[in-house]
Amino acid sequence: MAFPKGFFIGAATAAHQVEGNNVHSDYWLQEHMPHTSFTEPSGDACDHYNRYAEDIELLSKAGLNAYRFSLEWARIEPEEGRFDESEIEHYRRVIRCCRDHGVEPVVTLHHFTSPAWLIRKGGWEAESTVEYFCRYAAYVAEQLGGELNYICTINEANMGLQLAAISKRYMLMAEQAKQAAASGAKQAEGKVQVGMNFEKMMENMKFAAMENAQAFGMPQPQTFVSARTPAGDILVMRAHQAAREAIKARCPHIRVGLTLSLHDLQAQPGGEAFVEAAWEEEFRHYLPYIEGDDFLGVQNYTRTVYGPAGQLPAPQGAELTQMEYEFYPQALAHVLRQVHRDFPGDLIVTENGIATADDTRRVAFLQEALAGVQACLTDGLPIRGYFHWSLLDNFEWQKGFSMTFGLIAVDRATQKRTPKPSLTLLGSFAG
Question: I need a surface site. Which of 19, 89, 301, 403 has the fewest CB within 10 A?
Answer without folding.
Answer: 89
